[in-house]
User: Fold this.
Amino acid sequence: MPPWVKPLGVTVAFLAMIPFAVIARARVTASPDPRIHIIRDMDNQAYFKAQSSNPLFADGRAMRPPVPGTVARGEDELDDHRYRGTTPDGATYVDAFPEGLTVDAALLERGRGRYQVFCAPCHGVAGYGDGPVHHQALAAINRGRPGMEWVTPTSLHAENVRGFQVGRIFHVITNGVRNMAPYGAQVPVDDRWAIAAYVKALQASQRTED
Ligand code: HEC
Assistant:
């Protein structure tokens, strides 16, 4: 073996480690320069950052507010009957289900399930306003929990509630009423109609006198 082979081998081995050392260092240090980017397309260009100012507009804002009257895609909710349970002028609650919704056993079954999830904890499985949350609240008050107040969930078989149009029940679920919170954000619109249908069925089931 010629005498230069050994030093050459050592040198090559040493040089071969340099790229790894450079990579290892690059991974733990920060650099203000963009990465090496051979095909740049339009990746780096001048733009206004969110919340920054832009003198081009009279109000000086770079972020432009939506044009008045803009309707978010898929969120028109223009149908008052379907989304608010009222007539178009908002004057009265509708007493019919929205177009395209068939009231059948499947809808009632869906409504029963959703009712038991979202309403029965307060209003009770049979709708008399005696659900487990109500009992828990009364128990807490009896234990002398200071400052606690509780409004009894309305019985869905109360005289006036029995007379509610289905649109009004839908409206209560969607927007809440007095001390009851709204459920429009948690329960999709068709499920709210299903619950309203089920509440009507529940009321009829407890009404034997006529
Ligand atoms: C966290 C407890 C709670 C839940 C859950 C709840 N409610 Fe209520 N609900 C109440 C209370 C309390 C009232 C009475 C509010 C008042 O009079 O201030 C009420 C009132 C009502 C009324 C009478 C409204 C009126 O105008 O008098 C209806 C109808 C009703 N709820 C239906 C429902 C339906 C349907 C659901 C399920 C989507 C539901 N509630 C879920 C607590 C609840």
